[in-house]
Amino acid sequence: MSMADTVVAEGGGSLHQRILTDISEKITSGAWAPGHRIPFEHELSVQYNCSRMTVNKALSQLAKAGLIERRRRSGSFVRRPQSQAAVLEIHDIRIEVEALGLPYRYERVMRHKRRSSAGDRASLELGLAGPVLALECGHFAGERPFAHEQRLINLTAVPEAADEEFLAIAPGPWLIGRVPWSEAEHRIRAVAADRHIAAALDIEAGAPCLVVERRTWSAEHPVTHVRFTYAAESHTLVARFRPSQG
Amino acid sequence: MSMADTVVAEGGGSLHQRILTDISEKITSGAWAPGHRIPFEHELSVQYNCSRMTVNKALSQLAKAGLIERRRRSGSFVRRPQSQAAVLEIHDIRIEVEALGLPYRYERVMRHKRRSSAGDRASLELGLAGPVLALECGHFAGERPFAHEQRLINLTAVPEAADEEFLAIAPGPWLIGRVPWSEAEHRIRAVAADRHIAAALDIEAGAPCLVVERRTWSAEHPVTHVRFTYAAESHTLVARFRPSQG
DNA sequence: CGTTTCGATATGTATATACATAATCGTCAT
DNA sequence: ATGACGATTATGTATATACATATCGAAACG
After folding, report:
1. A184 and A216 in contact (C-beta within 8 Å)?
2. How high is the ipTM of this complex?
3. Nearest CA in chain B to A33
4. Do A188 and B209 count as a contact with CB atoms less than 8 A apart?
5. Of the candidate ranges A157-171, B114-128, B138-152, the one whose mean pLDDT is the lowest
6. Which CATH number belongs to the domain containing residue A28 in this structure?
7. Which of A211, B183, B219, B221 is at a distance of 20 to 30 A from A131, taking alpha carbons?
């Protein structure tokens, strides 16, 4: 069985998809090392018995995914794995808790509407003064505190939030779907619990905690800033990733 | 000026790119809410004065990026923001340190070649027994310890590592480029420093630390398991992201 | 009234073609 | 040698076309 025969053997999806996964595998398996010149579009179109356009579409996608680099007149080359970018999935806390098989409970601890202080504006990266809603909430797994939430909502961007008490629904799920976000930033770090957090999470002051802060923008306007604090034992963030997907 | 005129007004890149960013913006800005039916390929091809193929290429990409959902006969619809996936960039420690304007220093603390213990096999998710290389290294920013590295390398997957002392080069940079990885997993959590880590990082035992663990596979074979421990003050992980990029 | 069939429609995939653009190579004149 | 220049080549982008496929809706039928 010749090389060409192997390649053109029957496969599941579309041709375009097959070319994509074939080459993707060659690269991630190491068969084609970084720097290796992959066959020209013309050669591949002969190998796969299809038109150059089909090959082009597949290679363009691989280039966009960052697996290969294309140079006019020279050909396409396997890129060396450059920035290690991981896809970090941050789920809804309710779903996290329920995935552990524990009953989830939500509790609003504090709700305060006020004109933004200088600190608020720094948190939200807000230019002008304006009303904000400050919230503090507890998330429980069974009897135990799971996470403590401290949130600021920019009422200029989300005026409807002023009328919501957040007694029955947590601000996270409330905001999702209501406010289209265009950008977000996470900061993840370890801190020692201060007395306030220690009391909320029922741990000792000074105990290590994982803090996840998220700022969200919608079309250039800051929407919300939230800080989740987890007791060290209760939580691990997991990020699984591949250099690219076919 | 008619709608069509506005849309076809001169723009930077290719038409295909313009269609992509136009629609992407409409969605992320909220102008087209989740569930909204975007114009048919045919309508867009008239609006942008181009062929259906060009529109199709753009829409296919948006669908692949997860911004829209396409249904035969019915049209294409804006998807609601589903999983919050953040791109977490994990840089080389040297680069992180130098970005702070501090001199970087690397030090190998321990190097030990051995048959894998049960614990090693658990760390690497290794099925069979085989030789591993255990390393411990310090990364310094100026005079201060910045991160402590504890690493296992699967010598079955990377036999060349057995001959490397890792005195001058850190295992991370050494492995990158030499071993094509196909998959990796990060675990991020907060811990209290034990005495060993406390001594290495020059902090007090029990002080909070950020731990980033990474496991890497290459074509189904475990390659390495590494644990970086940072003193809480010294490090924050940042992940910035958008729902999708044009 | 319910079911089946069939046509219309929108997307999915692939083709041949055309011209633009960038980079490299060889040739020729200096 | 060296530099200018044009030919060649591979990719980049767009077009018109064709047929496949899924699905909605309406008409035909038992």
Report:
1. yes
2. 0.66
3. B180
4. no
5. B114-128
6. 1.10.10.10
7. A211
